[in-house]
Each structure stands twice: as C-alpha cells, then as structure tokens.
Amino acid sequence: xxxxxxxxxxxxxxxxxxxxxxxxxxxxxxxxxxxxxxxxxxxxxxxxxxxxxxxxxxxxxxxxxxxxxxxxxxxxxxxxxxxxxxxxxxxxxxxxxxxxxxxxxxxxxxxxxxxxxxxxxxxxxxxxxxxxxxxxxxxxxxxxxxxxxxxx
Length: 152
Fold this sequence. Notes:
Layout: H1 10-19, H2 24-36, H3 38-56, H4 66-78, H5 86-89, H6 91-110, H7 123-141
Helix pairs in contact: 1-3, 2-3
C-alpha cells in the first residue's frame, strides 16, 4: 500500500479511518500500513485523540429564551427595509467615486501633457550667431565719430 501522506487524495483515506467511516476491509489494510509507517501512525493517533475528545465533549445547555430570541432576530432581519442595509447606503457614494475616477482618467487620455520640444541646433550656425553678437558688441563699444560741421 502506498503511503496516503504521499499520494494525492490520501487525506480522505486518513480522515475516513480516524472517523471510523472506512470499510472494514480497507481499515484492515490501512492498519497493516500503520505498522510500518511511523508518520501515518502518529497522525492517526493524534486524530483519534481529537475524535475521542469531541465525542466526550458536551455542549452547555442553551439559556432560557434562546429559541425565542433567535426567531425574533430572524424575523426582524427578514422584515428589514432593503434600503436600510449599510452596504446599500454606500452604493451611491461608491458609484460616484468610480465615475469621478473614470472621468479623470478620460481627461488624462484625451488631453495629454504637451511634450517639451527640443530644437536641434547646428553647431556651425550657432558659432556664426555668436560671432555676429560679438561683432555687434564691438561696434556698440567703439567711440562714435565726431561730427564735422564742415561736412554738413
């Protein structure tokens, strides 16, 4: 027999054995496996301890009037107005928030930010422009010729 711990679906066999739902022939075969497999034996013993503890446990009695209170609450919930449920009161706010986010993203898609345009400048043109600026600066710094009254 293959080890149920190492095979797929083996946990069902283990649980059926420990809960006593395994057929007698299958239970006998599994008990032979338990003689050789320490891992399964440990697991089966721990599960049997859990089952025996659950069988020994007794639930405390329900308080007086428990059933009456339970049925009253069920009746109260079934007659409650559907628009009074907290989840439904948030629906308008949630739908408004979703609509606002969608409109915002639509504007982002419709009107993207303009990309900064960079102009490629030719190095020779730049050098000539700088030379022209230098020449104009020299002309503006040169002393103005004196005006000769005879030439007028």
